[in-house]
Amino acid sequence: MCGIIGVLGKHEVAPLLVESLKRLEYRGYDSAGIATVRDGHLDRRRAVGKLVNLSDLLVHQPLAGKSGIGHTRWATHGAATTENAHPHLSGPVAVVHNGIIENFRELREELAAAGIHPETETDTETVALLTRLHMDRGMAPREAALTTLRKLDGAFALLWLFDGEDDLMIAARKGSPLCIGYGTGEMFVGSDAIALAPMTNEITYLEEGDYAFVTRVGAEIFDESGRRANRDKQVIDAGSVQVEKAGYKHFMAKEIAEQPAVLGDALRNYVRKDGLNLPDGLDFSGLDRLTLVACGTAFYACSVAKYWFESLAGLPCEIDVASEFRYREPPMPKNSWALFVSQSGETADTLAALRYSAEHVAKTIAVVNVPTSTMAREADVALPIHAGIEVGVASTKAFTCQLLTLAVLALKAGIDRGHLSPEQLAAHLETLRALPGLMNTALGTSDDIARLAERLAEAQDILFLGRGPLSPLAMEGALKLKEISYIHAEGYASGELKHGPIALIERTVPVIVFAPHDRLFDKTVSNMQEVMARHGQVLLVSDSKGLATASEGTWATLKMPEVAEPFAPILYALPAQLIAYHTACAKGTDVDQPRNLAKSVTVE
Ligand code: F6R
Predict the structure, then answer these.
(1) How far is the CA of 473 from the centre of ligand 1 (A)?
(2) What is the pLDDT of residues 165-185, one digit of tens each?
(3) From CA 501, how far away is CA 497, in angstroms rounded?
(4) Which of 299, 369, 460, 479 pairs as cysteine with 343 (C-beta 3.0–4.6 A)?
(5) Torsions phi, psi of 145, nearest 5?
(6) C-alpha pair distances (Å), 594 with each of 228, 250, 333, 568
(7) Residue whose CA is closest, atom 7 of ligand 1?
């Protein structure tokens, strides 16, 4: 979602701020702005749309100054307009903000009583107005910002800059991540390490409730109760913040192509020659239930994993999307664990579900891509998925690495619960070890998919079908396609077809069927025949055995290498992603930053 950058520098900061905001583009945004202090005077520039609009504005109306803050906004309260864009300015105060100030309406009433009225629709402006009110009443910037901070409810990260103070930024974290970067005679603040990467690799992550006074000589950090806090400085590995396309047209293309390599990394971390390599404290024997909760693509990873935990370990599983789970306040057996899957580790609904579960179950587990994330810190056990930074808004390599990590956990559960023999475990590990190679073969279908995509791009509606663990993959395929190509798509368990969706079938509706030649193959083929009998155009994705028996009458086929049950979804994710990618390219949409979407959804 929104991105924050702040610099107390030695040189002009406007170019640095814009450059950092570019690195934060992947988070998703619809307007951007910067503010600087020059000779004690605060000024700002803001523009709707892509950063190029802000850069153009700065060419015509440059902004000088060596201290500045910047922001990319993903609209929540108020439309994406210049007026609503950050930084918000009121008198001597400039503020940028991620997240939501939940009590902004009450705060507006307080401001109205003092004769101050908002000029924008945003919750953020309230912070600037309140801080200004406190300064008008005689408080210095630090005291004014802290007095304001204590009044705010919600989940947010804030950064203040002040008129007349070109050596001070005030940062606060409550719910949304924020980090401080150290330079020589320069200091930085960013919503993540990626924003700060070209300027520094020495970073301190603020903890929940922390606030900091940042000057060019360093940062004084305080915890929620106002006590001085010593937070670790970390040196960030350059590779972990690399956001280059490396010759690919889009980050998404690069991230799809990286999957054999990153899956190999994840495997090396969790599977050793002699078996599984998981942290201590993960003994599944005697467990009554596992609850898996996530949002979006991560939820579909959980939905696939449910099949694995049940079939490989005989472990009863419940799955839910986090936005429903958190408010239905479900009863959870004490003798159960809850597992949360999140690429970012910051998704507001998933985090709330984790916090709810922590009160009810014996153990919480976070499966995340960002090891420094809030979920990783708050869960009893954190398992990184080792996908490396994912920049494309549509999740690809994180999905397959989530699946791999969940597969390893399901195998561990199978052994712990006596459901799998050592021989069966060894056979399943062989299947997992073969996956990177098979993925390379699957990537070889990219050109064929690009040709088929020309036709898919003309469709208004597309259906995806699959059975067993391939049925959540059908839903993931549909999600991927709709989010980046804007074509309406639905994924169904193929057995559900005749309970309603079959009414949609006609000549113009492509139906994409994921069907490896497994024990459910014949069932899926029957559903596929029902589609073809109604002139539906079937694209069958299967292996050589499957294609040899069921290609007749299809519109097109795609050949995948053979993969042993039950891990086919990890391999079949690749054609699903490539279908979405090439269809979006054929339509000419913004693949890496599709409209209305944000990479890390830190508001509910
Ligand atoms: C879709 C996609 C989203 C995310 C969802 C959860 O391609 O990326 O559906 O999966 O917003 O995000 P995380 O995994 O960060 O919790």
Answers:
(1) 15
(2) 999 999 999 988 899 999 999
(3) 5
(4) 369
(5) -65, -45
(6) 42, 12, 40, 28
(7) 394
Which residues are known to be catalytic? 2, 599
> Mutation test of ligand 1: which of 395, 591, 595, 603 has the most ligand atoms closer than 8 Å to its C-beta?
395
Q: What is the CB neighbour count within 10 angstroms for residue 477?
A: 29
Min mean pLDDT across 101-115, 218-232, 237-251, 559-573 is at 237-251
Give the Cα separation of 490 and 523 in Å (integer).
20
In a 3-state reduction of DSSP, which class is residue 361?
Answer: coil
How far, in Å, from the CA of 375 to the mean position of ligand 1?
14
Confidence category of residue 383, pLDDT binned at 50, 70, 90: very high
Average pLDDT over residues 250-258: 96
Residue with token string 């409550």: 174
Nearest CA to ligand 1 atom 11: 296
Backbone angles phi, psi at 3, to 5 degrees: -120, 145
pLDDT tens digits for range 468-517: 999 999 999 999 999 999 999 999 999 999 999 999 999 999 999 999 99
For a pocket test of ligand 1, which of 295, 391, 482 has the largest count of ligand atoms closer than 8 A to its C-beta?
Answer: 295
- First-to-final CA distance of the chain: 12
* Ligand 1 atom 10: residue of nearest CA: 297
Which of 538, 463, 473, 541 shows the shortest CA–CA distance to 503?
463
pLDDT in tens, 102-145: 999 999 999 999 999 999 999 999 999 999 999 999 999 999 99
Residue 339's DSSP bridge partners are: 292, 365
Quote the ligand 1 centre to 398 CA distance (angstroms): 9
**In Å, what is the CA distance from 304 to each residue of 297, 354, 469?**
11, 20, 5
Query: Is residue 333 exposed (0-12), middle (13-18) or buried (19+ Cβ within 10 Å)?
Result: middle
pLDDT of 522: 95
Provide the 10 A C-beta neighbour count for residue 381: 17
The ligand 1 atom at the shortest distance from the C-alpha of residue 601 is 11
Instruction: Quote the ligand 1 centre to 299 CA distance (angstroms).
Output: 8
* pLDDT at site 598: 82
Q: What is the DSSP letter of 246?
A: T
Residues with CB under 6 A from ligand 1: 295-298, 342-344, 347, 350, 394-395, 479, 483, 600-601
Tens-place pLDDT, residues 331-347: 999 999 999 999 999 99
Give yes or no for residue 241 having a pLDDT over 80.
Answer: no
Pick from 176, 250, 346, 347 the residue to mutate for probing ligand 1's pocket: most ligand atoms within 8 Å of its CB. 347
CA of 22 to the centre of ligand 1 (A): 21
- Asked if 214 and 170 count as a contact pair (C-beta separation under 8 A), the reply is yes
What is the distance in A from the centroid of ligand 1 to the CA of 243?
19
* Nearest atom of ligand 1 to the alpha carbon of 297: 10
Q: Which of 143, 57, 250, 97 is nearest to 602 (CA)?
A: 97
For position 18, what pLDDT does the model report?
A: 96
